[in-house]
Amino acid sequence: MKNLKPLVVRITQCIFILTFMLMNKSLAQNRTIDSLEALLHSSHPQTSEILVKLVYEHFDSGDLDKVLKYTHDGIKAANSSGDTLTLVKMVRLKAHAFRNLNRIDSSLNLLMRILPLAKGNKYVEEIKFILNGIAVCHTVKASYDQALKYYFEILEFPLGAQGVTEETVLGNIGIVYYKLQEYHKAATYFKDALKIRVVNNRYFGYEMELINTSLCYAHLDSLAEAKRYLNQAKSWRSQELPPEVKMLFCNALGIVLMKEGKNIDAKAQFLESYSLANQVKDERLRLDNIILLSEISIQQNRFNEAEGYLRDAERTISEGSPYNLELIKIYARLVFLYSKSNDYKRMSFYQNRYIQLRDSVYNEAMTNNLMRIHAEHLEKENKARIESQNKILALNDEVIHQQKIANVSFGGAAFLLVLLTILLAKNNLQRKKMNALLDKKVKERTKELEMNQDTLQRAWHERDVLIKKASEGIQSSIATIRGLSSLGEREIDHPKASEYWSELNMTSTRLSSIVNKMRFVNKQDTTGD
Length: 529
Description:
The structure is a single chain. This protein is mainly alpha-helical. Among the domains are: about 15-155, Alpha Horseshoe (Serine Threonine Protein Phosphatase 5, Tetratricopeptide repeat), CATH 1.25.40.10; about 370-529. The protein is about 85% helix and about 0% strand. The chain is built from 19 helices and no strands. It has helices at about 5-40, 45-60, 65-80, 85-100, 105-120, 125-140, 145-155, 165-180, 185-200, 205-220, 225-235, 245-260, 265-280, 285-300, 305-320, 325-340, 345-360, 365-490, 495-529. The radius of gyration is 59 Å and the shape is rod-shaped.
């Protein structure tokens, strides 16, 4: 008891904190709605945008009556202003609200009416939402051929991170194949969806995909694999699973335990899932749990208990449940139960309903349609794959062509480079030859010049010798003339003689001066050399 008190205190604290957080969130949401409604009543020019925001806020708060009110106002405003995009969006949101209220036929009618307008205006994102909504409605009604048709059509559009994502569509296709009991194919789609979530880091709905994959392996009797996926789903979050996820988890775990023959443990899980389904108002899973609980009760021969569960299902049926597959299973259980209790009137009543509904769902036309739609999808995939391969081949051809051009260009450049190298080599060789010839000529010319210089030097030397000899001879002759002139001047008394001798002396002096100049010039020339 002492250990329980702190635990109770902690649980109480957690409940208080959670309640406080929810109240805060609710208050914040109410403030947003109040401010939007104030803008709407103030005749704000962006009325359509405000109405769309109000619809989304009321979807979050779960007030579907307000959603229907504001979508009605939005449709009216869009028709008045001619705003086709808002019109399409509001009709689509109204259909979504109808689907949440299990008014599947009303939802389907609205979506089918608005789809041509969305396609005509090429509102791609809205088209994907509408196609997905139509496919979901057909899944609920167990019109699985039509559901696949619209899901496969969505895959023809580009799917990004917003709106209807690829992993969402693949997961929904997996659900259709699961309902058709094609568990291998369903598991393939669920696992493809898981891979895309991981690759693109988009983990919203990740646990649901893990649980759906686990269900496939449970029905394939691969119980170890089923448990592995369930453990991944449970350990994915550090905190408690939200009710919407936990009810599916308990249902899947119950099926695994039931397959293992642990009916008591399985029953506990189905009861918890049933309680959570009531809490979140999930009629489909509620019926699914009733079917499984009644099956365990019948196996244990607890027919009164089984009848109690099935009568609960009858109340749901009387309210007009759209879940045809689950209804077929309920009718089958009721037929079996009333046959056991010998209530043949009721047995006959539900047997007729069972046969009619089963024949309307699992008829030959649907089987043929499923085969045709699946074949068409495979053909489109093959065509897309072939087209992709053709594009790759064309791209390869282009790459090869470009490579050939590059190779030719490279070859041409290499040839030109070799040619240029050869020309440069030849030019270099020729230049070397010319340089060699020039060097030879220079050497020859130098030798010739040296020889000429030697000859010239010899000539100069001979000239110098001749000039020197001539100079010496002339000097000697001048000296002789001067001596004779001096003697003659003293010995001859002729009146004119002195004048002649004087003239002769002057001439010898000039001659001597000229000889000196010649010697000086010759000396300068020799020094300059």
